Amino acid sequence: MPYLELKRKIDRLPSVVxxxxxxxxxxxxxxxxxxxxxxxxxxxxxxxxxxxxRTLEIAGRTLALVITVPLLSMGISLPLAWLTTRTDLPFxxxxxxxxxxxxVIPSYIFAYVMIVALSPRGMLQQALASPFxxxxxxxxxxxxxxxxxxxxxxxxxxxxxxQASLRGIDPSLEEASHSLGHGTFSTFKKVILPQLxxxxxxxxxxxxxxxxxxxxxxxxMRYETFTFAIYNQYLTPFGGRMIAAALSMILLVFAxxxxxxxxxxxxxxxxxxxxxxxxxxxxxxxxxxxxxxxLAFCGAVVSMFLILPISVLGYWALRGISAxxxxxxxxxxxxxxxxxxxxxxxxVVLAAxxxxxxxxxxxxxxxxxxEKFTYIGFALPGIVIxxxxxxxxxxTFMYQTLxxxxxxxxxxxxxxxxxxxxxxxxxxxPSLEEASxxxxHTATQTMKSITIPLSRxxxxxxxxxxxxxxxxxxxxxxILSPRNFDTLATSIWHAxxxxxxxxxxxxxLLLILFSSIPMMILLIFWHMRGNHEKISSxx
Amino acid sequence: xxxxxxxxxxxxxxxxxxxxxxxxxxxxxxLVSGTYVYLIRDTxxxxxxxxxxxxxxxxxxxxxxxxxxxxxxxxxxxGSTSEMAGMLLEEGKHSPADVFYAxxxxxxxxxxxxxxxxxxxxxxxxxxxxxxxxxRWVGISGRARVVVYNTDVLTEDQLPDSIWDFTDSEWDxxxxxxxxxxxxxxxxxxxxxxxxxxxxxxxxxxxxxNNPTAYPRNTPxxxxxxxxxxxxxxxxxxxxxxxxxxxxxxxSARNYHPRDGGPGATMMISGAGILETSENRENAQQFLKxxxxxxxxxxxxxxxxxxxxxxxxxxxxxxKPINEIQFPNVSMEDMNDLEGTLALxxxxxxxx
Lengths: 539, 352
What we know:
- The complex is a heterodimer.
- By secondary structure, chain A is an all-alpha fold.
- Chain A is built from 27 helices and no strands.
- The longest helix of chain A is centred in the first third of the chain and has 32 residues, at 55-86.
- Chain A is globular, with a radius of gyration of 24 Å.
- Chain B is of the alpha/beta class.
- In chain B, strands 1, 2, 3, 4, 5, 6, 7, 8, 9 and 10 form a ten-stranded mixed beta sheet that branches.
- Chains A and B meet through helix 7, helix 14, helix 16, helix 17 and helix 20 of A and helix 1, helix 2, strand 2, helix 3 and helix 4 of B.
């Protein structure tokens, strides 16, 4: 890059953006430093074990999961996102809330429910046994069960950014396509889909990374991935930590390859409108008689991923209570859950903002390194991240405080918010910022008056995502939380690990309820605001 | 025209302010309350910090009894035993913990070097075969290893006398186990002590040839047996009683304590010890004494379906009385050798 051009680009960014980006990057490198220390501490016999060990077999299984889950999620999310934003589908807002909600269900709960309902002799078989005499249904354990459960709890990572992007698309392009004689499908393929590429790539990357790090579902479905193997190493007190560190390093190489694969899909394409006129909300596609299959599709997704788990949880609660189990709701754990989740959402979004601005407005080595680093925490198992923070923080005044827990969430969930904000920034024409600069505003003023207000959509959806995943986070909460600190997720875990199903069901239902409230507020907020913020982009 | 647009832009900047204000408010409230909790927590002198590898569902009530009896304020940190052990190892000498209360001897053995030697008055309260040979931790309550079987397809008479006999090919495809579970690993440790290395390895290989189904934990194993996915499972006794409590008497699984005893009927001990770095040693000792007192032991017998380690406290009426089970005689010294067991399990490919 010629010097002058580089200089011009750096000038465009206020120093607060890149300074804070670098600081945050250094902080989130903590797990990497810890792993390096542990892996270096591992003797040759540890590495021997790692290589002797069925590493290839595990790698193959991990890879299969990491490829299948994003593909399946895409098949679910793309039609859902389009139907709920661009068509006259009945009860659109209700569907948007309901289809995003499976994200709040902890993966170990979902997998357990699946086993209860769909195992060879589970509820489904019992229901089929008397009328049809079905003795056994095919096993869901292994690859199929793992793919199904991991997809169920992670496809909204793709659905939410897709919905946000579809809302942000300048309708003039579509109208042009229609006026040139293209139908709905052809317009979708040629005009809309290309504009969704950044959202698809980043959502699919998140889902792929989540499949790498999920433990709850793969362990219950008995599908051994790297993360499962790493946890099993932590279960073995002697030397296990070293092997776990070595395996985590391999996992990290996997994650890095995924990230570079995602980068490769990016092009120099622009994703913002260039229209001079004032963009309005586009016309909705009339579904006509297609609305019945569309409704059936939405209904199927919601029944499978939301109603089924909720019904099984409700059944557990009622069955237990009628059998005389005492179930008391500890409200403090609900308050704690909400408190830490709201704080995590605020902190993570604030930290994500400079990084998103840097990586969407400045393409260079620094920006690339910063962006890749933000994903480290999301790809590694929660126990690795948490122990690395313990390693550095123990003995300091921060240890076992709320602040440290929030910091743990920051490392774990930063890419969720960075991705959302980045996507919304990519839809803004940078000429707006250039115009502001040429009118005499400084870089900081431009950021305050143009960039940040226009990325608000992304900030809000990023905050919502972080809120939802923090509500159900378990590993870091168990290890990093202050003492005497229970959340809904930890209460569920305590109860399930000792087979107290009724006592697990009640906090699980509360978790789903409390997580759905902000989702609803968010979606209603979007609806009310309409295309208000679009006015400024016509400048 | 231009003016209108600029106004629109300005409106937007203002519209952003409530959002930022909410963010700032949330942060302020959170940090203040976080600091407040931190400050009040450290003003109390009469406290005790316990890391528990046992679930709060099992021990929360007895902790509260302890608090109200002694006036000591207890701060709990819960996780699985292996997570807590991993955390203690990372914390090292900076650990704030006073007591480590573990579900199984393997977990507490992993951090034994961080524990202090207990005073005799505590060691005397717990039977010698249920404590650490170095006197660094004591057994608190016991769980029996059992074979859980499906009552629709099997009766107790059809089950073999010893766990060894499940290597017979008639059990092909009918067995469930949880080889990564610490209790299972402790049973294998008992096997190595009772049977020797070679016979234990033969047992593992024999079971492997019968294509056992591996479950991640005890609970799903019990559930799978009741559902008929497998016919028998090697588990701890008390999960069955949880299912009976929730699903009623027609839950189709029951426990079998192998008639001939042996390692298949090992007694698993939950244990507790005091950290060398503890700053509340007296409270910690008081806690261990409380758990070992009649009151503490009765709690476990009546509420968690576990075996009390004292003879004078009666077991729960639903349990097979302790004197009718043929427990193997394995010393705690031998039970400590989890490392050797893990090596054997890795060598035979049961765990990775």
